Amino acid sequence: MPRVIFIDTDGTETEVQADVGKSVMEAAVENNVPGIDADCGGMCACATCHIIVEEAWFPVTGPRTDNEEAMLGFLPDLNERARLGCQIKLNEEMDGLTVRLPIGQF
Known about the structure:
With 106 residues, this protein is of the alpha+beta class. It has a single domain (3-100), classed as Beta-grasp domain (Ubiquitin-like (UB roll), Roll). Helices cover 17% and strands 20% of the residues. The chain is built from three helices and five strands. Strands 2-1-5-3-4 form a five-stranded mixed β-sheet. The model has no long low-confidence stretch (mean pLDDT 94).
């Protein structure tokens, strides 16, 4: 069961466990991680599960999809490691995945 570490803007870390195949967004919502709104429920139709993947983990999470690029394009300050949590499906390789939360969701 992979662990995901969410780091809030003030540096507070929240570590959760989730089943393989769940998305990072689902892991956050199911564990009440503050800062992940998930307004569209994981349909890649908003950017309220926006996260910033730590550099060491970025190659493991894979590239952004075209839909993800379109949603993230609305963000005023897009980071190159920005992803939508709903688009990252957890696998065993991602045990310890560390992501940062943005100042706010859009």
